Structure formats: C-alpha cells, structure tokens
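PT: before anyone asks, these are the final sequences, not the draft ones from last week. 201 residues across everything. Please model them as a single complex and drop the result in this thread when it's through.
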Amino acid sequence: MLLKGQLHIHTTFSDGKLTPQDAADIYAGLGFDFIAITDHDHLLKSNYRKAIESVKTDLIVFYGIELTVFEKGYVHVNRIEGEKEILHVFNHPGEYGLSRKQVLERIHSVAKRYPLDVVEVTDHGFHTPEFDIPEIKYPKLASDDSHNSIGCGRAWIELDCKKNKDSIIRAIRRGDFWNCYERGLKKEKIKGVLTTNQFIL
Ligand SMILES: [Zn+2]
Ligand SMILES: [Zn+2]
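LR: through. Structure below.
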C-alpha cells in the first residue's frame, strides 16, 4: 500500500520542542503513516524508549537515535530500529561546512563503522541539491529533521509496501521510495541572513 512517512524528528527528549505525542499528533494530522523519532544520543533524557512506546497513535512510530560520530569532526548518523531490520542514515551532508569531496570521504569512513543504507539530501527539510549527486552511491533520503511544529511537513518520503516496520526499512534500503517536498518551499539568503520563505505558486 502507498505510505507516507518521515524519519528524522527531535522531541523534548533531546533538543526538540515537541513531546513524542505532540509530534505523532502533528504528523497524523498531515496524513502521515509512519514517523521515526530520532533524538540526539548526547542529550538523551531517561525513559526515552518507554516514551516512544507509550505514544497513542495510529501511526507506525519507529524508535531511532541520532548518533554523534567523530570522523575528522562530528557527523550525525541516524539509527532507526524496525522489528528485525535496522536502518542507518548518514544525515544532512550540507550541515557540516564540508566540500563534496570531504563529504564523500566522511561517508566512506563512516561506512566502515556503521552499515550505512541511505544518505539524506535535506537540511531541516530543505533540499540540498549539491549533495544529491550520483557520486554518493546510496539512495538519497528527504526528511524534516524537525525540532518544532513549524519544521514538520517540509520533506517526506512515499513508498509502496506492506504497512510494517521491516517492510518499510527494506523498501528504503532498496531505494524504492520517492522524495517529496512541500510545494513552493525554498530557502535563500537575504542580506547575509539565512531565512526561510514560503511562496504560494
Ligand atoms: Zn543532526
Ligand atoms: Zn537531527
């Protein structure tokens, strides 16, 4: 079946503003079928797993964690748990201030430590085309990396598979999904200040 989901969310269990329940309610309201909550490992509060398992929702809610990995500087890797499958995502290559060549090197090094499956091509839900390139030989994943309600629903994926965690992870690993973006949303620099603008088309 056709499913809509988003695999990168922060909550009050690290540096996000939404509780896991708030996040699930917002994404349910946006018509999502699944989400992953992926709070930062170094900021994690206790009872995190229990809080995710206690969310009352019709959504599939994946337990995830954003790992801080030191590889000539810090990079972030999301580890998302299915029933048996585990998905590893190299996160937001555009956020490290690195060149394409350096990003390729970092991905190569991190892949020796974690079984990477996919690489994000978004920065807080905005497409980063400079890293959506064939030289990165992984499926490219769009996600929100949402930390508050305004950051929810900018970028997501859609896929056609059975509605269970492992089928979703396997489809993503195969690259069998579509990246989707909120229509008309783009990010630009105005007078040196990074802003976000939504244009109604
Ligand atoms: Zn991150
Ligand atoms: Zn994040």
